[in-house]
Q: What sequence folds into this?
């Protein structure tokens, strides 16, 4: 005699956010400078730059610390810049690594020259603030700051491409409460 078993599968409901994410505590705010712009060349997707930046953290739990790192930047043909910046926060004996991705956008009405013009000797960016927006993931082995592991961070600020001045604030996205 053969017995047949029937398997029943149930599908778990797909979770939906009950509200848009809200920004919570400041992780850091830094003021600093983008190093000299180092173009690699003009590629199909835009001009690639390998730059550096550093700054002083002026707000948040790491205030008084230093932030620095490389800035792998692509300025696209539409004038939008793509950021990929592996950052390092140094605060006393604590170290926090961040992987920042985002965009740099020129102010409305700022003319976008052909990218080849940026490679010409004597080219200067306009002395205006470009908007910086992005997100970051953080990692640390410091027990005191382990709460940043697994936290999504929103980056907002400004960079002046002519002077290199940076002013950037990073805030944690609050975790949704369980209902």
A:
């Amino acid at each position: 005699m053969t017995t047949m078993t029937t398997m029943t599968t149930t599908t778990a409901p797909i979770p939906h956010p009950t509200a848009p994410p809200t920004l919570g505590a400041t992780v850091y705010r830094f003021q600093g400078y983008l190093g000299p712009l180092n173009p690699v060349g003009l590629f199909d997707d835009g001009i690639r730059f390998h730059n550096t930046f550093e700054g002083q953290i002026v707000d948040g739990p790491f205030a008084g610390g230093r932030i620095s790192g490389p800035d792998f930047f692509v300025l696209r043909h539409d004038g939008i810049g793509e950021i990929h910046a592996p950052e390092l926060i140094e605060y006393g004996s604590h170290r926090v690594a961040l992987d920042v991705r985002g965009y740099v956008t020129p102010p409305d009405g700022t003319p976008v020259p052909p990218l080849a013009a940026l490679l010409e000797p004597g080219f200067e960016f306009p002395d205006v603030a470009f908007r910086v927006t992005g997100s970051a993931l953080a990692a640390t082995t410091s027990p005191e700051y382990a709460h940043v592991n697994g936290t999504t961070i929103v980056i907002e600020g400004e960079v002046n491409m002519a002077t290199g001045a940076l002013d950037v604030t990073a805030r944690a996205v609050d975790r949704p409460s369980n209902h």
In short: The radius of gyration is 21 Å. The chain has a mean pLDDT of 89. Strands lie at 23-34, 39-43, 46-59, 66-75, 81-91, 94-105, 129-139, 152-160, 165-173. Helices lie at 115-118.
